[in-house]
Design brief:
This protein is about 30% helix and about 35% strand. By secondary structure, the protein is an alpha+beta fold. The protein has an eight-stranded mixed sheet, with helices on both faces.
Length: about 190
C-alpha cells in the first residue's frame, strides 16, 4: 500500500500524523492533560513524557502507517496550529476477511464539550473508510465515560456488548462497553 500522508482539514481543525518537530507540542499536550487522561488510559511508561520516547514514537507511527498497521493522528485548531488539542488512534489493522481496526481518542480537558472530537472523528472515520477501505471500526469505553458514550452514539456506533475486566486502565482492570461502526459503502478492491 502506497498512500500519501493524511492531512485532514475540516471546519475548525486539521488532523495529521505527528512529526519530529511536533515532539515538544506532543509532550506539552500530555503533560497538561496527564491527570485528565489517566482515568481512561493505560498507565504511562516512565519514559512517556520524554523527548527520546516521542522521537522514536513519531517514527514508529509513520512506519506503522506506511505498513498498513495503524493511523495515529494529532488534532490541531486552525486558529492555533502550534498547539495539539487531542489525538485519534486507529490501531491493530486487520485485513483479509476482516478489514477492521480499533479506535481510541482523547482530547484536552479545556477543549471538551466544544464539538471538536465529534467533528474530528467524523472526518477521520471518513478517511479510514474511504482511503484505507476499512469495513469496520470498533471503539470500546469505560461505562463511566459518558462523554465518550455520547460522541460514539452521535457518530452512529452501535452497542455490541459488555466486556468484564477488558483492559488495564489506570492500573486497574476495567469493564468496557463494546461498540462498532461499519462502512456501508465498503467495496472489494
Amino acid at each position: 500500500m502506497s498512500l500519501k500522508l493524511p492531512f485532514i482539514s475540516i471546519t475548525s481543525l486539521f488532523l495529521r500524523l505527528g512529526t519530529k518537530e511536533d515532539v515538544p507540542k506532543i509532550i506539552n499536550y500530555f503533560c497538561q492533560n496527564q491527570e485528565h487522561l489517566a482515568r481512561w488510559q493505560p498507565l504511562w511508561d516512565s519514559s512517556f513524557l520524554t523527548q527520546e520516547f516521542w522521537q522514536k514514537q513519531v517514527e514508529k507511527n509513520l512506519k506503522e502507517f506506511q505498513c498498513d498497521q495503524s493511523l495515529k493522528l494529532f488534532m490541531f485548531k486552525k486558529t492555533n496550529p502550534l498547539e495539539i488539542i487531542g489525538q485519534i488512534n486507529f490501531n491493530n489493522f486487520v485485513r483479509g476477511a476482516a478489514q477492521f481496526c480499533y479506535l481510541g481518542y482523547g482530547i484536552a480537558e479545556t477543549e471538551q464539550g466544544k464539538g471538536y472530537m465529534t467533528e474530528a472523528l467524523q472526518a477521520a472515520l471518513s478517511y479510514v473508510f474511504k482511503e484505507l477501505n476499512m469495513h469496520r471500526v470498533m471503539a470500546n469505553y469505560v461505562p463511566q465515560n459518558q462523554r465518550s458514550a455520547q460522541v460514539l452514539k452521535k457518530l452512529g456506533f452501535v452497542f455490541e456488548g459488555y466486556a468484564r475486566d477488558y483492559l488495564l486502565i489506570n492500573g486497574q482492570w476495567q469493564d468496557h462497553i463494546l461498540t462498532s461502526l461499519t462502512n456501508e459503502n465498503w467495496q472489494l478492491k
